[in-house]
Amino acid sequence: MVTKGLSEITKRFYNDGISDEEFVMHAVTDTLGGDVRKASRTEDIEDHIDFWWNSPKKGWIGVDVKGLNRSKRSDSSYDDKIHWLELRNVKGKEGWLCGKAEYIAFRTLSKIIFVKRD
């Protein structure tokens, strides 16, 4: 885990993100079958793919996971009625909306919503 030198709030957001990805990876294999593997660092950063799912019917499919959010960073609880869309990231590059994942997996408090990207 690369959290050395990060603020406590940034560490929490980083750890929450990792947990969401692992949760969705396990949910996919448990309910849909197939295998999963974590994307490489380059695939994650450049292509906005968090993991690959080897679908029993289609083969390898890239998935980008969007975890639970808060309305404001200072909020203590999650609000699954909102999901932030990223057109541009903090570095000014194209955000995850322009990524290469075939599916975006939005996690809510009670389900995972998969949206196919065109």
3D structure, described in words:
The chain is an alpha+beta fold and 118 residues long. The protein has one domain (8-116). The chain contains two helices and five strands, in the order αβαββββ. The chain has helices at residues 8-32, 41-47, and strands spanning 35-38, 51-55, 59-66, 103-107, 112-116. A hairpin with a 3-residue loop joins β2 (51-55) and β3. The radius of gyration is 14 Å and the shape is globular.
The main pleated sheet reads as:
5 strands, mixed
The overall pLDDT average reads 86
Low-confidence stretches: none
- Shape annotation: globular
**What percentage of residues falls in helices of 4 or more residues?**
25-40%
Strand percentage, roughly?
15-25%
Count, helices: 2
SS-based class: alpha+beta
**Order of strands across the main sheet:** 1-2-3-4-5
Give the distance, in angstroms, between the N- and C-terminal Cα atoms: 33 Å
Instruction: Count the beta strands.
Output: 5
Order of helices and strands: HEHEEEE
Gyration radius, in Å: 14 Å
User: Number of domains in the coordinates?
Assistant: 1
